[in-house]
Amino acid sequence: MTHPPRPPIARLRALRSVELLTPHFAEATDFYEEVWGLEVVEAEHSASWLRGTGEEHHALQLTRADRIGLGRLAFAVATPAEIDEAARRLQARGITPVTGPGPLDQVGGGYGLRFHDIDGRLIELSAETWAVAARGRDAAVPVGVTHAVLNTPDIDASVAFYRDVLGMRVSDWSEHQMAFLRCNTDHHCIAFNQAPWVSLNHVAYEMSSVDHFMRGLGRLRHHGITPQWGPGRHGPGNNTFSYFTDPTGLVCEYTSEVAQVVEDTWICKVWRRTPELSDVWGTAGPPSKLIRAHMAGTPDGSPVAWPLDAEGVPA
Ligand SMILES: [Fe+2]
Which InterPro entries match (predicted)? Predict the structure, then answer.
């Protein structure tokens, strides 16, 4: 007897925020506010919360820790009732939430739940978080987070989990190396990268337009910071990119103009991994050894960052 496919646990609306763990908490908070263009909305001894110009209370939570990496990914769900239903559907799949469902005891509030994905990452679903008024979009600063790329040792298992359990759809593959998944019209809010271990590859911040994107690069240049890879435009997703490393050694990206998917007409394809398709403008060149090392990261759960050599590459 075959069972009908189980529905995903919820309909995710967007990647709401990302929590990063950092032993360099003060430097990281300064970087994301003074340089990157976010704004601290709340700060205490062990954590800070930073917003973009969008309506999310915060896009980024930095948490003081003795290891580096991803703390959690938070996704928006429409209603508390959907959170409760998600909890029931998780339980039916044998996954017990580690928090909730219920009011979240955290800055930014909300009603939600948290559970671990197939690789042990902490995932939060939330509804009714505190609303903040969107800011004007004139400044060349991020609107908010728009995607995270995650390293995984089993890309097929990770994609299957995010597709079947979280209800994401696969927009494109980059050979059998990367998979791009969406939860709304943006081409991707999550991408997986086949890798030796589970870690964070990078977090991308949305700039309102390619003009904001370029002016943002100019603003960073005034801080003496130039891209470690970029500027350029990717083939899959068609988004612009420029990658940097934050004081923790985690990779952050300015991006804009990601492809918009029209459901039912979009055809998922497998892109070849060629220089012309990863850098369609031809402006970025290949990624350096340094940025590739930072994108590989250290395995989640490592107690400390790896020792770095003179060039900042993990030894
Ligand atoms: Fe990216």
Answer: Glyas_Bleomycin-R_OHBP_Dase (IPR029068), Glyas_Fos-R_dOase_dom (IPR004360), GlyoxalaseI/FosfomycinResist (IPR050383), VOC_core (IPR037523)
CA of 206 to the centre of ligand 1 (A): 10
Helix or strand (DSSP H, E) at 85: helix 80-92
Q: Which CATH architecture has domain 14-127?
A: Roll (3.10)
For ligand 1, the distance from its centroid to the CA atom of residue 308, given in whole angstroms, is: 24
Q: What is the pLDDT of residues 66-98, one digit of tens each?
A: 999 999 999 999 999 999 999 999 999 999 999
Domain limits, the chain: 14-127, 144-296
C-alpha of residue 137 to centroid of ligand 1, in Å: 21
R_g of the chain computed on alpha carbons = 19
144-296 maps to which CATH number? 3.10.180.10
Query: What's the gap in Å between 215 CA and the centre of ligand 1?
Result: 18
Distance from residue 90's CA to the centre of ligand 1 (Å) = 29
> What end-to-end distance do the CA atoms of the chain give, in Å?
53
- Residues lower than pLDDT 70 in the chain: 1-2, 301-315
